[in-house]
Amino acid sequence: MKQETQVEILKELMRQVDEGKNIDAGVQYRMPMTSYVCPDIAAKEWDMFFQNHPQLIGLSGELPEPGSFLTIDDFGIPVLATRDNEGNFRAFLNACRHRGVRVSQEERGRKNVFTCPFHFWSYSNSGDLVAIPNEDHFGEIDKSCNGLIELPAVERDGLLWVHPQPDGQLDVDELLGAELAEELGTYGLGKLVRGGTKTINMNLNWKLSNDTFGETYHFGKLHKNTLGKIFPGNNLHLELFGRHHRFVTASQTLGEFKDIPEADWNIHVGAAFVLYYLFPNITFIVGNGSCTIVKMYPDPDNPGRSTSQVFAYYAQEVLDMEDAAKAEGSLEEVTSENVYDPEKRGGPSIETTMEVFNSTIEKEDYLMGELQQKSAETGLLKHVTFGRNEPALHHFHSTFADVLGMPPLEKVEA
After folding, report:
1. What angle do helix axes 316-328 and 349-356 make, rounded to 10 degrees?
2. Where are the domains of the chain?
3. What is the pTM of this model?
4. Alpha-carbon span 37 to 208, nearest angstrom
5. Which of 11, 253, 381, 407 has the fewest CB atoms within 10 Å, measured from its CB?
């Protein structure tokens, strides 16, 4: 992020904190609760947002060297992603061309050749069909046109993008917009490696999971004993980038930056919580030498269930320092009791991130989402209201409605 942008954001957050005023969109909106429960809406979302839309599958560090691979099955298309022997990022339908069995059942690893467990047809990590056992018995096969079905794949500034359809269009500049693509490119994401993961399966619509990351109004209420000790909430800087946005809220230590020259202000060092929303389902949190990606997926068979996949990435030197500290026994175990204590905080970054997602996101935010889901499913509560201080929620749901060709959100008249 450019220095002048950091200064602009931090000054606005300081103003809001000093004045005790949150962001003001100047308007309230209402949205039908059917958005969270309607099977027809859910089917359209699954088709348009997941089956036929580019997907961010992770960072370049997921495929650290030639021969690396990972498999994904979160959006209904089984994907085998590889870094081939030339170092190129590739993506394929994870299905043998013989009878459709997955050629890799492992989540990740390193292989030059993938062998279908059914009849041992084998494929290179560039997707070529290289061997058919007992080919003289099976019959002649043109190997040149029976490799794995390739999917559009782009590696850009440390981000790995895949389109689920072989004929899908994948242009990162068009997808993100030049301004956002440039800003994400400043974070050195290609140098980060996976440090920890967490999966959350709960009874709430995937958009309610998304809503969790859409306002700070609740920080001092729901999270008063957890995240609220680090981020006071009720302040927000929001910038829209087409279907995406940047969401920043102040930390408790923001005021300390008033005594530091603006040229030395660093939004990622104790000043604020910086989050990017990438349409349709990605929450992307960046820090100093780290980032966390939350990918939220619907259950295609049940609008009332969803899965959130959490991936924490760090610079290798950060992981090495933590390993050394653990070996020395100098790191305090991270618990729900100390992770939010400013005097004790500072344990292992991986464990800290995972504990926050356990004690705050899963056990507080998503629990509220489950209660919202139950209310929606009664059919008695017709609308939810998004306040003037919740413009990120306005943006989420206005964008969803627009892409689906649905009526816009209803303005609430005084």
Report:
1. 100
2. 3-52+183-411, 55-162
3. 0.93
4. 11
5. 407
